[in-house]
Amino acid sequence: MVNARDVIGALEHGGYRLTAPRRALASLVAGREGHFTADDLLDAARRRHLGLGRATIFRALDALAELGIVERIDLPSGEHAFVACEAAHHHHVVCSSCGRATWASDHGLERVAAEIGRETGYRIDTHRLELFGLCAECLAAKAST
Amino acid sequence: MVNARDVIGALEHGGYRLTAPRRALASLVAGREGHFTADDLLDAARRRHLGLGRATIFRALDALAELGIVERIDLPSGEHAFVACEAAHHHHVVCSSCGRATWASDHGLERVAAEIGRETGYRIDTHRLELFGLCAECLAAKAST
DNA sequence: GTCCAGTTGCGACTGAGTCTCAGTATCTTG
DNA sequence: CAAGATACTGAGACTCAGTCGCAACTGGAC
Ligand SMILES: [Zn+2]
Ligand SMILES: [Zn+2]
Ligand SMILES: [Zn+2]
Ligand SMILES: [Zn+2]
Predict the structure, then answer these.
(1) pTM above 0.85?
(2) Which residue of B has its CA nearest to A113?
(3) Which chain A residues are Cβ-neighbours of B133 within 8 angstroms?
(4) Exposed site from A3, A11, A118, B100, fewest CB < 10 Å?
């Protein structure tokens, strides 16, 4: 989760022009706890009559991904979605029930990656870890039924 | 990498009918070291005049994924690809240069996942780790230039 | 205020993946 | 081995995410 001010600040800092559509996008992305697709944003924009074009949303999302404000994730279903997050290296834990995404630090992963590199003979450059399960709330909700 | 016999055996064992198109598919998938897309297979099929339909390839690939003979991976570019592999839980290391995919065991990952679960309060059900880098051969090739 | 590169929205386009359906091939059972 | 039930197939229409080209617009530097 991230707030609109941060998004706008990052755009400004990244040398992007601060345009009305981008401000609008920032407000759409801000405060989201779960993952969202480009089309989710498009729907939201339409509902608020922001008049954003499809292409603009994709382009802005690319820019935000570039800046690390937003990250692409691949859901098990094969869909592409985004989560708002901070730029530092981290991994996402995604609730398969409500879609909420939480980020987690690396714990011992770098070591695991290094070991796998040694085992396979590869020079590992990047890695992507995605975890799926039930968040605390959905777990509680499920237990109480 | 996997051989055609294994693929066919798995299909048979999984309750699927052993049809000519599926045998053909098995021979296309067998022996591949790298990742491939559905369209790669379609091209290969056309080149060998196997007369496989587009839909058939997608359906067969789904079946193989179901059986664990093949696994969907998501390339950093956003493309969906497949790798042939064994059914046991494992992770893929993908060469960003030649596309070769090697599989690696879990090393300490289960522990990392458990720890992330504890940190975030999630009950982690599944995880997906994909590593990208340069394979030993590409590394050597690069060094010798 | 002027100016221009960066940006926008539109609509056409692409390409992956799905669906439908009539025809075909496989397996089972006798 | 024949026959029936049914799983499977290929063709093509279709959907939907994402991209592209372009004319119009605008943020912000001077
Ligand atoms: Zn949840
Ligand atoms: Zn990491
Ligand atoms: Zn390689
Ligand atoms: Zn694992």
Answers:
(1) yes
(2) B131
(3) 117, 122-126
(4) A118
